[in-house]
Amino acid sequence: GSSPALGLPLSERVVCFDQHGSRLAGEHTTGLPAAFLSTTLAKRALETGQPSTDTVDAGGSVGQIYRYALPVPSPTGKGYVGVVVIGESIQVQEQALSLLLLLLVSVGGTSLLGAGLGGLFLAHRALAPARLAWANQQRFITDASHELRTPLTLLRADAEVLLRSREGMAAEDAPLLEDIVAEANQMADLANNLLTLARLDSRSSHQEHEVLRVASLAEAGARRVQALAGQTKISIEVDTDERAVVIGDPALLEQAVLALLDNAINYNRAGGRVMVRTAVKDEQALLEVEDTGIGIASEHLSHLGERFYRVDKARSREAGGTGLGLSIVHGIARAHGGTLRLSSIPDQGTTVTLTLPLAHRTASARRDEAPGNVSALSERTV
Asked: In 3-state terms, what secondary structure has residue 225?
């Protein structure tokens, strides 16, 4: 399959064709691959009068052969006397290219993996100070709120004791003590709200998991704020759906309901209404609080739930608000796998909807995580 007589390397092959593209008679082709002896390249060179190349597959250990066809001009200058086709196996080069491609893919993949892991490591290190600062901030808020509650309670108690003897005081002293009691109550509420938010953020506090009827939460909340609503002749209506049953922390969910009702009363009009509804929709339990109050402009809706954000700061201060109520409700909703949605029309009222997973969905999720806990949860219904 080689032409040692022509002094060519064994890897090269040569065959000659006549002016018609046929192999020359007596051409020694023993051992040459059939693909190499194909006449197509020779005929193409004769037709174009230009050197032509192609690659053919000889199979076996020879593999791919690169062929080069050179037409040989006639001595008379008219036409061609034939074509010389030279071929060389490029199997070794192909194997080398395949190996190089494999190495490039391997090195590239390893480099990308290393870059990804390095990026994660560097990102983790870069975020470490921020995480530490956040943890320190949460710890400070928790500690400060906890430490403030005791002196505030004592301050309020002392002022209330002094007020019992107001008949023996100067006329201007009693109002000052009443201001102290009011401000101490305000500060105590703020400290308690900050402590609740810090615990919700860090998830450090223990959270109970009991089966709760949302209707019971709504009715209990409406009873507790009835006196506050009566001061401005606001009526509270409750419409419940007994199918709305959830699994959650009763204290936190009661706090969320009270915060929503408190907002609905404080930002309502005298003689207005507050409607509390519970329902089931799309495998979710809904608690909806609707009021006929002053409403909220659309540009403020996206900010509601931000800490210390108040639409009307003067009215919020007068009502004793701190701007943390909806933030706490948002945190409680997230802690229970739910959401809080607000809609409002200025001068017509606001509707706030607390959405929580139904009990059977929560129980199924907990069964996957801890099979032994759900049965105990299902037995306790509030």
From this structure: coil
Mean pLDDT score of the chain: 81
Cβ count near 211 (within 10 Å): 18
Q: Which fold has domain 4-89?
A: Beta-Lactamase (3.30.450)
CA distances from 226 to 2, 5, 258, 335 (A): 107, 115, 11, 28
SS3 76: coil
Q: What is the DSSP string of 157-168?
A: HHHHHHHTTGGG
Q: Is 94 left (phi over 0), alpha (psi -120 to 50) or beta?
A: alpha
- The answer to whether the 4-89 and 210-379 domains have the same CATH topology is no
CB 41 within 8 A of CB 84: no
Q: Give helix then strand counts, H and E, for the chain.
A: 11, 11
Mean pLDDT within 73-101:
89
**Confidence class of residue 362 from pLDDT cuts 50, 70 and 90?**
low
Lowest mean pLDDT segment, chosen from 141-155, 228-242, 256-270: 141-155
Domain ranges of the chain: 4-89, 108-202, 210-379
What distance in Å separates the CA atoms of residue 64 and residue 58, rounded to the nearest whole number? Answer: 6
Picking from 38-42, 110-114, 178-182, 193-197, which range would have the lowest pLDDT averaged per residue?
193-197
d(CA 81, CA 86): 17
**Beta strand residue intervals within the chain, DSSP E:** 12-18, 52-57, 64-73, 80-89, 210-213, 235-239, 245-248, 273-281, 284-291, 339-345, 349-357
Q: In degrees rounded to 5, what are phi and psi of residue 88?
A: -145, 135
Kindly give the pairing relationship between strand 64-73 and strand 52-57.
antiparallel
Q: What is the tens place of the pLDDT at every residue in 268-292? A: 889 999 999 999 988 899 999 999 9
Beta bridge partners of 251: none
Residue range 150-198, pLDDT digits in tens: 787 888 788 888 888 877 777 788 888 888 888 887 777 777 777 777 7
The DSSP secondary-structure symbol of 21 reads S
Q: Which CATH architecture has domain 210-379?
A: 2-Layer Sandwich (3.30)
Candidates 104, 188, 101; CA nearest to 151 is 188
Q: Give me the CATH topology for the region 108-202.
A: Helix Hairpins (1.10.287)
